[in-house]
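REQUEST
  id: r-88c1
  op: predict_structure
  target: Ribosome-binding factor A
  payload:
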Amino acid sequence: MASYNRTRRIAEEIRKVVSTMLISGIKDPRITSMVSVTDVEVTNDLSYAYVYVSILGGDEESTLLGLKSAVNYVRREVSRNVKLRHTPQIIFKVDDSIKKGMYMDNLIKQVSSKNSEETMHKDEEYDK
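RESPONSE
  id: r-88c1
  status: 200
  body:
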């Protein structure tokens, strides 16, 4: 349990550093301002940190390429701000949970409107 808490604390610190860097630190034109860090998962041995980013608007592939090209700079900044014996390798992954959530919300709205239309038709039949 203590190991889990430690990895979560380290993941949260890495998330803060990378989020700050996305706002002001990385000057790659491929990285749009609509990139945000949604989560960071650190392996138990602290060798890898999976940084999940949400990319809204812009070209997702070129933004991810920009992030991957800046991975050494990001790792260096993480090592300066998070005091660890070995800084984990940073691996950026796209988090599409927001897109999936919007898609599910749209499906729910469609089903809800279809159900309300069916209810209205049934009410009209009862009125006759």
